[in-house]
Design brief:
heterodimer; A: three-stranded mixed β-sheet; B: mainly alpha; three-stranded antiparallel β-sheet; two-stranded antiparallel ribbon; 20 helices
Amino acid sequence: MDTVPATGLLAASWLLIALPLAGAAVLLLGGKRTDRWGHLLAIGTVVVAFALGVACTLELAGSETTSVGVDLFTFISTGSLDVSAGLLFDPLSAVFVLLITGVGALIHVYSVGYMAHDPSRRRFFAYLNLFVAAMLLLVLGDSFVALYFGWEGVGLASYLLIAFWYTRPAAATAAKKAFIMNRVGDVGLALAVFLMFAQLGTTSYAGVFGSVGLLAGGTVTALGLLLLLGACGKSGQFPLQAWLPDAMEGPTPVSALIHAATMVTAGVYLIARSAPVYDATPTARTVVLVVGAITILIGAVVGCAYDDIKKVLAWSTVSQIGYMFLAVGLGPIGYAAGIAHLLTHGFFKAGLFLGAGSVMHAMDDRTDMRGFGGLAGRMKTTFVTFGLGYLALIGFPFLSGYFTKDAIIEAAFDRGGASGYLLGGIAVLGAGLTAFYMTRLMLMTFFGRARWSTTGPDAVHPHESPAVMTLPMIVLAVGSVAAGFLLVEVFPLVDWLAPVFGEPEEAAHVVPPLVVSVLVTVVVALGVLLAWVVVGRREVPTTAPERVSLPVRAARAGLYADTVNESLLMRPGMWLTRALVWVDNRGVDGLVNGIGAGLGGSSARLGRTQTGFVRSYALGMLGGALLVAGALLAVAAG
Amino acid sequence: MGAIQAPSLSLAALSPLLFVFGAAAIGVLVEAFAPRHVRHPVQVALALAGMVGGFAATLLIAGTETVTAGGALAIDGAGLFLQATITGLGALSILLFAERGLDPARSSFVAAAAVPAGSPRDRELLTSERVQTEVYPLASFAVGGMMLFATANDLLVMFIALEVLSLPLYLMSGLARRRRLLSQEAAVKYFLLGAFASAFFLYGLALVYGATGTIRLSEIRAAVTEDGTGTLLVLGLGLLVVGLMFKASVAPFHTWTPDVYQGAPTPVTAFMASCTKVAAFGAILRLLYVAFGTADWTWRPLVYGIAIVSMVVGAVLGLTQTDVKRMLAYSSIAHAGFLLTGVIGLGGGTGSGLAATLFYLLAYGLTTLGAFAVVTLVRDGDGEATHLSQWAGLARRSPLTAAIMAFLLLALAGIPLTSGFTGKFAVFRAAIEVGAWPLAVVALVTSAIAAFFYLRLLVLMYFSEPAVDGPTVGVPGLPTTVVLAVTVAATLVLGVVPGSVLDLAESAATLVG
C-alpha cells in the first residue's frame, strides 16, 4: 500500500475535521449570542463536511492511487527527532468518513426537532460537532497517536453527552460509568502505543505495519491483545460491555449517533486498521473471535429480558458489534464483511434509535415498553420506518441485514473445522435471538392493546413527530432497506476495500451459501414466531412479573456483569485506593513537604549571602575567580 | 618607518553596526542642539531607526561569512543571528523606554538626573514632561557594544565592546524616576562590580597575550593547538571566563543581578535581562569555541560545574523571593545555567548545541522582555507594585494582564507549547548528545524547582483574594502594547511551530575565526 502526498481536493481533507471543530468552538465560545442560529451552523458544518467527504471519496475512486497522505503539522523536526502529525485518506477511512458525516448530518437535523424545547440546545450541538470532529480525526489520522487523540476526543464527547442532563443522577452516574470503563480500555490502547514506540520507534501506520514482522511473536501478541482491550472498551464488548446500555441516559440522538452508528464501532475500525498486526498473531486474532462470539450471545440474551425500549436497542447494538468483531476476527475472509455490516448497522440502528426517540417524544419521554402498545395507528411514519429498520436488523430476506449478517455467518462456517461450526452456530443462534427480542419490542410497542390512556394523571397524547424528525428517519429507513444490496451487489465493498485488506480470495465453502441463507432465514422465522407466541398472543402485563425463572432473572441483571465488576474490580479498587491514600498522606506528602521545606530552608540560608554590600559581593566574585583558576589549573595539570 | 596600512573594511559586513552606532552618534548631536521639547520624539525615532536599520541590515547580509576590519571582527552565521536578536530585542526595549502613558509621572526615567534625589527641585520635577532623553543614545551605544561583543574576533576588541556596552548600562540603571536612591545604589553597585569584572577580563587578556603573543582568537587557537596549554594560558582563560560570566549573570558571579534588576528602571531591567544576556553568551561562545575550541578538555569540566552552580543557585534562591523583579533576576541566573548546558552541548564545535543556544537566547530574550513589560503595568500610587503580595488576585482585577503574565511564566518554566519548552528541549538534547546527561538531569531537576516559584506567582494571581488596597493595572500605551503583542505571539509561535526558526538557527550555526 503506497501512500502518496495529497493533491487537489484531497489536500483539503483536513477541512473535514476543522469544520465541525470550528463549529464546536464557535458554539462553545460564542455563548448565548449563538443560541438562535447555533444549531444551523452545527448542521451546516457537518453537511459541508459530508459533501467534502463525498467529493474526496469520488476523487480517490477516480485516481490511480489508493492511499493519500496529508501532512498536517510539524511540531519539531530537527535532526533525528521528528514530531509531526498527518492524515491518511484511503478506502477504509473514506467509508467511515461517509458514514460519520452522512449519518451525523441526518442526526443533527433530527436533533433540531428533538431538542427544540431544551434550554441548552446550543451546548448539545456544540458537543455533537465536537464528537464529529474527534471521530473524523480517529478515522483519518495516519498514526496510532493521531487515532488515540481522536479516541480520547470521542470519549470526552460521549461523556459530555451521556451526562447532558447532568442534573439527573442516573445520567451523571451513567456518564461516569462509561468514562471509567472506557478508561480501562484506553489504558490498553495507550500501552499498545507505548509498546509500538518502544519496540519500533514509530507509531505511524506505515511504520508499524512495515516492521511488525520484525517483532518477536510474544510482543506482537501482546500488542494485539492490548489493542483488543482498547477496542472492547470503546465498542462495549465482553468484558467491558456494561456501560453501553447505561449510556442510554443521554438524549436519544446521541444514542443513535454515538452509541449505535459510529463511536462504538471505533473498536471494529481499530482492529480492521491493525489487520497487519493481527495477521502476525493468530493467538490475538482467536481472542478477537472469542470476544465477538461471547458478546453476540450476551447482547442477544440480555436484550430479550429488558423492557426499556432504548436499552433493548443498546443490548442489540452490543450483540451486533459482536458480529463485527467476529467478522474481523476471522481475518482476510471477514474484514470486508465486518465493515459492510458496520455500515448497514449504522443505517438501521440509527434509524431504530431515531424511531425510539420519536416514540418517546410522543409518550412524554417514557421508555418502558410495558406502557406502550397500539402505537402503530397513531404514528404511521414512525411505525413504517421503524418497521423497515426492524426487518433490516433481523435479516429479512433482501434487506440490509440479510446481505451483511449472512455474509458474516457464512464466513464463520467457512473457517472450517469444529471451531467454524461452533462460531457459525453461535452466529445463527444469535440471529434467532435477535429476531425474538426485536419482534417482542415491535409487538409491545406498536401492536396490541394501548396500555396508556389519554385521560387521568398519566395522560399522554401520542402524535406523529414533526417533519424535521421524520425526514431523517425516512432517509435512514431507505438506507436500511437498500444499503445491504448496494454494498454487496451493486458497489461491492469487498473490491473497494481490496487495497487495504488485499484482494478477496474465493473461500472454499464448507457449507453452501444457499444452505446458510435458508438456515438463517428459518431460524429467524422461528424467533419471530416464538416472540408472537410468547408476547403477541397474550396480554402484556403493565408491570414486569416478579416470579420469573432463573435465566430471565439473570438476563434482567445484565448477566450479572455489574455484580462481577463490582466484586472483582470496584471493591478491591476501593481498598487499593484507601491504601494508596494512606501511603500518599503519610509517605509521599511527607517526602514532598520535606523536600519543599529543605529547599526553602536552604534558599533562606543561601539568601543571607545576598547582603546588599558591594564588598561582600566583590569578595564572592573573588572567591569564585579563585575557584575557577584553581579548577582550570587542576584540570590542566592533571 | 613603513607607511601605515589601512585595514581592509567590508562596509557591507559592518553595516548593522554602522546603523546602530550612527544612530547613537546622531543622538548625541540631537541632545546637544535640538530644543528640549522635540528631543523625546526625535530620540525615540532615531533610536528605533538605528535598531530597525541594523536588524534589516543583518537580514540583508545573512549568509555572509567573513573576517573583516583587519581581523578584528568575525561576521558569521552565529554573529549575525545574535546581532539580529540583539537589535530586535533592542528595538522592543526602546519601545518600552518610550512608554509615556502608564506612569502619572509621565516616564520611567528621571527628568534631570543631576538633581539630588529627594530635594525640593526633584519633587517638583517628578511629574514634569521633561525626560533625561540621553537614555536613547545611551541605549543605542549599549546595543552597538553588544553587537560588537558578539562578533569580536580579537580579545582587545572584545574588551572595548564590553566597556562600550557596560558604561551606558551603569548610567541607565541609575535613571529611575521613582525610588531614585535605590536606582542610584544599583547603578553604583553595578559600576563597581562591573569595573572589578572588567579588571579580571583585562588581566586575563594580558596573560593570554603573554602566553601566546597574540590577541586574535584564531591565532590563539593556532597557538593552543601547536604549543598546548601552559599555566599562564590557562590562568588567562580562567580570568577571561570570569569577566564574561559576570556579564551573563552566571552564578557565582551573579551577586549584582538581583540588586541591579530590582533598582534599575524596569524597561532598563528588561533591556539588560534580554540583550545583555544574548551578547554575553555570544562572546562566551566565541571565546570558548573559536579561541579555545581545540583545548576544550581544559574548560569543559569548569563550565559543567558553573552551569550546575548557576542553575541550582538561581532556582533555589528564587524560591524565597518576595519581589517580582528579584524573582525574575534569579530566574535569569537559572536560565544562564540552562544556556551553559547548550554551550556544553556544542561538543567539539560540531554538536547541535550552537543552534540550540542561539534559539534559546532568542526565545528567552523575548519571553523575559515580555514579563518585565507586564511588571511595568501593575502599579500603585508609588509607581510599580513589585511585591508579590500586591499581585494577589490580579486575575480577578485584570484577567488579560494576568493571562499574559501566566503564559510568559509558563514559558519561563518551560511548559510545552511555549518557546521555553522548545528551547530547553533543544539545549538539553544537545547536552545529552555529547554525553553530558548528568548535566541534563540536574537541569531537569532545577527546572522543576524553578517551576515552583513561577507557578507560585501564577497561583497567587489566580487563586488568592485580591488585596483591598491592591495595585491597579495601567492601560498600556501603544509602545507597550506592541511589545506585549510581539513577545506573547513569539513565545507562542516558537512553542507551537518552532520548526522554521530552529532550522534558521541550525543554518546560522557557524563560527568563523
